[in-house]
Amino acid sequence: MEGVTSAAEPFAYPTEPHCRRHGPAGYTNYQSYRPWLEDEFVFRCIYCLKRMLWAPTDVWSVDHIIPQDEAKELACIYDNLVLACQCCNRMKSDQRVPDPGLVAYGQCLRVNSDGAIVPLNRVGSRLLRALRLNEPRYQRWRSQRMRELRALALCDPEGYEQVMGFPTNLPDLSVLRVDSNTRPEGIKDSWLAKRRRGELPNVY
Description:
Elements: E1 24-25, H1 34-40, E2 60-64, E3 81-85, H2 86-92, E4 109-111, E5 117-119, H3 122-131, H4 136-155, H5 157-164, E6 180-181, H6 185-188, H7 191-196
Antiparallel strand pairs: 1-6, 2-3, 4-5
């Protein structure tokens, strides 16, 4: 399953380029694609891997891989959109970063146990600089989060599953109206559909 591993790793970047599961089209406001993107990117920031479940009061953004200033015609094209936390969206601003659909971020970045992100190549160094992923406050947060999750896994398995599982309210993509959908089969493979079939992993 895209973005899900059998052993939950809170900060493991995908080792393969992201293969889009959805293809909605027709919205004139790119923010309208957010439910699709939440499901697409497994309810976490594509850049820093923070999960929506960890920050329910945070503002989450629809980010453009190719910035709007560069290509306004791509502003509402689904394959040019990703889900990002507000911090990463602000840091990236109008910079160009590698398309996660073409480049596997896991081949470019590795997160150490102390919360530091190590670049594995030039692309990784570029991502670190653009998004400032190794700012001290972000590194401290990742380190603390990993310590908390290790403690939960040992002492409170049920609590661990709650923190490392899926959100309670998963979007129902089957009721969303779009002009067209180039990947309609993705709706049957959405996380809500998996939950209804009893196929949703406890953790990811």
